[in-house]
Amino acid sequence: MTPIAVYRHFPGDVEIPVRSHLRNRKLSKYFNRETAALVTCAAILLADREIPAATPFAYAMGQVEHEDYGLRTLGDGSRGPDDGFCPDAFIATGIANVSPLTQFKVLYNMPLCFVSIEHGLTGENAILYGTATSDVRSQVECMEPAGRVLLGAGHIHHDGSVDVGLALLEGETSRIPWDSDADVLRLLKAWAEA
């Protein structure tokens, strides 16, 4: 049994068309590129499918390479006369240089959260730090009693490009063609191409 999967690569110089996939387009201001890519993939994967709200969702992510969300500006604006950290400079200028929306873009669980919000998912969810298939498989197997699990993975590259995959796993996870040598993102890509 091969899962139903979607995989997308968005080059760094291309705007991700997430707004056309949102019921509430204003939410997009909270998205980083990975979140926008995952929400887009979820809309494509779930477009003609009804899934129960209790469907569990596991999302594997590696290190965010591209976006610094203004944190360098925060650090630079927080330097004192000796070039070290200065609490007064942090309060006066450092924090003022960072958008309040940054907090939504730097939290690792935001891609998962915004897909859950958009599709009304209230089931168990898990952010998995790292993309080793064996780790992700064991997490998914813990979620299996639901009979259906969403599994996603994403990666933002130094050039701003984003790779994201999402699959709907149904039935016994032991019957799914797991490739333990591939990371989850490559596995999702293979499932989408099958």
Please name the defining characteristics of this protein.
single chain; 194 residues; alpha/beta; Peroxisomal Thiolase, Chain A, domain 1; five-stranded mixed beta sheet; 34% helix
Distance between the termini: 11 Å
Do you know the CATH architecture?
3-Layer(aba) Sandwich
Biggest beta sheet attributes: 5 strands, mixed
Globular, elongated, flat, extended or rod-shaped: what is the shape? elongated
Assigned CATH class: Alpha Beta
Specify the number of helices.
7
What is the SS-derived class?
A: alpha/beta
How much of the sequence lies in strands comes to 15-25%
How many domains make up the 3D coordinates?
Answer: 1
Compute the number of strand runs.
5
Low-confidence stretches: none
Helix and strand succession? EHEHHHHEHEEH
The CATH topology corresponds to Peroxisomal Thiolase, Chain A, domain 1
What does the average pLDDT come to? Answer: 83
Kindly state the percentage of residues in helix.
Answer: 25-40%
Rg (C-alpha, Å): 18 Å
Largest beta sheet: strand ordering: 1-5-4-2-3
Full CATH superfamily name: Thiolase/Chalcone synthase
